[in-house]
Amino acid sequence: MDKFNIYLTGVGGQGIGLISEILLRAADNAGLNVKSVDTHGLAQRGGVVVSHIRMGETIYTPLIPAGESDLVVALERHEALRGMNGALKNGGVLIYYNTVWQPLDVRLKNADEITEDVISQECQRRDIREIRVVEPALKDIRMQNVAVLADIAKFELIPGINNENYIEAMKDLMEGKKLEDNMKLFNGKSA
Amino acid sequence: MKTMGRMLLTKEPFSEIVMGNTALVRAMIESGTRVVTSYPGSPTPEIATAIQSIPGEKRPFYFEFSTNEKVATEVAFGAALNGHLSAVFFKSVGLNVASDTFVQLSLMNIIGGMVVVLGDDPGANSSQNEQDNRHFAYMSYTPVIEPSSPAEVYTFYKEAARLAQEKKMPVILRLTTHVCHAKEKVAFSGWEPSPFDNTPMFDVKNGPYISLTSEVFPKKRRALKNLQIIEEDSIRCGLHRTEDHKNRKMGIITMGLPFQSVMDVIEKAADKPDILKLGLVYPVPKEPIADFLRSHEEVKVLEELDDILEKEVKSIAYDLKLSTAIYGKMDSEDRIGEYTPDKVYQLLKKTWPHMLPDKGEKAEDLTLIPQRPAQMCPGCGHRSAFYAVKKVLEETDITVADIGCHSLGFLPPYKMGEILMCMGASTGMGSGLSIFNTSRKVIVFMGDSTFFHAGLPGIVNAVFNKHNITMVLMENGTTAMTGHQDHAASGKNFNEPVEAIPIRGVLEGLGVNKIYETDTYNQKKLKELLVQALGDEEFSVVIAKHPCMLKFTREQQRQPGYIRKRVDIDQNKCKRISECIQTFACPTFTRLEDGSIRINPDLCIGDGSCIQTCPTSAVTSPGAKGQEDNNG
Ligand SMILES: Cc1ncc(C[n+]2csc(CCOP(=O)(O)OP(=O)(O)O)c2C)c(N)n1
Fold this sequence. Notes:
The structure holds 2 protein chains of 2 kinds.
Chain A: E1 4-11, H1 16-29, E2 34-38, E3 48-55, E4 69-74, H2 77-87, E5 88-97, H3 104-107, H4 116-125, E6 129-133, H5 144-154, H6 163-173, H7 176-190
Helix pairs in contact in A: 1-6, 5-7, 6-7
Chain B: H1 4-8, E1 14-19, H2 20-31, E2 35-38, H3 45-52, E3 62-65, H4 69-81, E4 86-91, H5 94-105, E5 114-120, H6 134-140, E6 144-145, H7 150-167, E7 170-176, H8 177-180, E8 182-188, H9 213-236, E9 241-243, E10 250-255, H10 256-265, E11 274-278, E12 280-282, H11 286-294, E13 298-302, H12 308-319, E14 325-327, H13 341-351, H14 381-392, E15 398-400, H15 425-434, E16 442-447, H16 448-464, E17 470-475, H17 503-509, E18 514-519, H18 523-535, E19 540-545, H19 549-558, E20 565-569, H20 579-584, E21 589-591, E22 597-599, E23 619-624
Parallel strand pairs in B: 2-3, 2-4, 4-5, 5-7, 6-7, 10-11, 10-13, 13-14, 15-16, 16-17, 17-19, 18-19
Antiparallel strand pairs in B: 1-8, 6-12, 9-11, 20-23, 21-22
Helix pairs in contact in B: 2-3, 2-7, 4-5, 5-6, 10-13, 14-18, 15-16
Bound molecules: thiamine diphosphate.
C-alpha cells in the first residue's frame, strides 16, 4: 500500500483519543507501518482536538501536510467542515458524526451555525465522498466515536484493515461493560 | 485489555506502539533510574500517567510531583548526591522556575548522575512562549541530547543516563511537543530487575558541594572538560547519523523533529540532499560537521526556533577556512513556529527553489467557520466566579489573570483577567498596578496549585508592603489544566493520602487579615463577599471554592449506577433574555434557529450552577435525564 493519511477531529471531551488509538492499533494489527499524534493540553477544554494517523512503508513524522489527508473523520459538524477544508484532498472521504456543539461565536450570535447543506455542497464541489453518521438511540454519548468507527469498517474506508483488526484493537483498549456495549454497537452497525 | 503498567515491566524484549512519553518511562526503568520528580506541564504530564500505570509497590523508582520545578530539581539533585540515578521532568518554561538551581548543577559532582527531561514547545501548542532552552544549556554547560521520535526517546534517554552516570553530571534530554506525543512501534530490550543499594552515599569528599569563590574555577574547569569528552563520546557512541543520498552539492544539517519532517519532504525531491542529523545538540560535534561541510558545496542548517546551531556551523567553517555556502535562517519567520513538514517544505523552497515540486493550489474555502477556542467546562466553578466578579466590578477596574484553566476567563463574554504572565505572577503585577491608583480597583486571580507553586512570595509581599488589592483564589482541589494532578491542598500526594495543607490556614499564617470564603456556586454570597473585600483598605482574599467538575464528573461516571443529570429550560418561562448564553455562557446553552434556547444534552452535567443566573427562573433543577427526552 502506498501512503494513507487519516485526520481525526472533534471537540475536547468527544473521545477523539479513543477512536484514534483504535485506528492506530487496528492498522498495526493489519501489519501496516503506522504512526500517529494527538493534540493534548489546552485544547482539551472544549477546544478543537485533532489527531493525525499516517500509514505506509516510508513515513517519518506522524504530522500530515495540509490538504494531504485521504480520510477525514470528524465527531462534530463544525469540525467536519474545518477538518475537510484544511486537511482533506480533493476526491477524498469525509465521515462525520452529525451532532453540533455550538462554538462560542454561534452562541454569542456573532456567527451562523454550519448546516449539513453547506458541508454537502462543499463535498460535491470538491468531489469528496460524504458519509454522515447519527445514532440517536445511543446509550452514552461517549459511544459516538465507535458509531463512526463501525461505519469506517462497514464502508471499508481504510485500505488493508478489516473488521477483525478493529475488534482486536478494541479488545486491547477496553474491557468489561464498556467493551461489551461498544462491541455490540460495532458489530450491529458494521455487519 | 492491554495495560500499560504490565507492559512497562515486561522482562522479555518486546515491541509495542507507544507515545514518546511512555517510551521514556521504560527507558528510565531499564537504566536503573531510582528517583524521578516533576511538576506538571504540557507536553510532559503523560510521563506521569505512564508512571502511575505501574502499581506503587512494583514501581522500581520513587516518584513525586513536587510543589514546583525548582523544588523538583533540588529533590532529584539531592537524591543523586546519595548515589541514585535521578531524573526530573517538566515543561519548557518550568526551566525558568528551576533555573536558579539548574544553572549550578553542572558545577557539582553528581555521583548518581541526573537527567533533566525538558518538554519544549516550538509552536507554543500549550505554552506562553516558544523559548529555546538550548540557551540555558549554553549558559550552564549542560549537554543536550535531542531525540526525534518515540524510538529515539527510548534509546537517547538510556544514553543520557549513561553519560550522566559516567561523568557524574547533569544531562538534558530535550523533547518537543510532537516527539512527546507521537506514537509509533518501539522495540524494547529485555529488563531484569536488580536489587538496589539504598545506602546513603553522600560524602563531602566527593565535593566540595559549596560553590564559593575559590571553588568556582576548578568546578567550571571540570564542567568544560566534561563537555569536551562528551562531544567526542557522542561521535563514538553513534548519537549522530548521516543519510547519504550521494549528493555532493546540497546537504542539510538538522536534528529532532525537523529531521523527520525533512525526511518526509525530500521524498518528492528529484535530487535528494544528504543529511547530517545531530543527536547531541550541545556541545555540537565539530568533527562530523566539518566533514559534512567539506563534502558539500551548499549546506542548509534546519533548526527550530533560534539560530544556535547555525552560528556554530558558520564558526566552524570560518575557523577551517571552508568555502561551503551555509544557509541558515533567512528571515525572522524562520525562527517562529514548529518545523512541521509544511513549514520545512516552505523553508526548503525558499532556500533551493528548484529542489521540490510545486504543490497544487489548495481549494479555496467558501464558508467562514466560527473559531472554537478552548473554554471552561460545563459546571466549572471558575465560570461562576467570573460571572460574579463581573457583576460587582466597574468597567474600568483592572483584572489580572494567572496560569490555569481560569486563564480562559479572558475570552468573551467574561473578559476577566486581562494580563497574564507566568505562574504566581498575578499578585505582584496587581500590586504594581495599584500603586498611585485610587480610582480603579485591582482584582487578581490565582489557582490553588499555583498558590503553592509560586504564589506565596507575591502574597507575602502584598501583606508586607501593604498593597491594597483583592485576590480571588479559585480553589478547585486540583491542578486542573494539566490533567488533575494532586497538590499540597488536595489531601493526597502521588503516592498516598496525606493531610491537606489548608489554604486558608496558610493565608492566616502569612498575616492576611481579610479572608472570605464561599462555595463558588453561591452567587449571592460570593457577590456580597467580593463587595466587602473590595471595600477593605488592605490586601484581601476571597476563596472561591468548588471542586473541578470535569474531574468530579469523571469520577462519578466510574461509579456503578451513575445516572446523568441535566437541567432543563421551561420554554413557557423563558423570555429569551439570553443571560445564560450571553453572560453566563455555559457551552451547554444552545441557540436554535427559531431563537429558542435549549440545553445540549451531550454537554450538560446537571450541576445547576446556572439556575441562579436566569432572571425569569426558566432553568429548572437538574433531574435524571435519559437520552430519550433529549430536548436539544
Ligand atoms: C512554570 C510553569 N509550570 C507549569 C505550567 C503548566 N501549567 C499550566 S496551567 C497549570 C495549572 C495550574 O493549576 P491551578 O493553579 O490549580 O489552576 P487550575 O488549572 O486548577 O484552574 C500548570 C501547572 C506552566 N504554565 N508554567
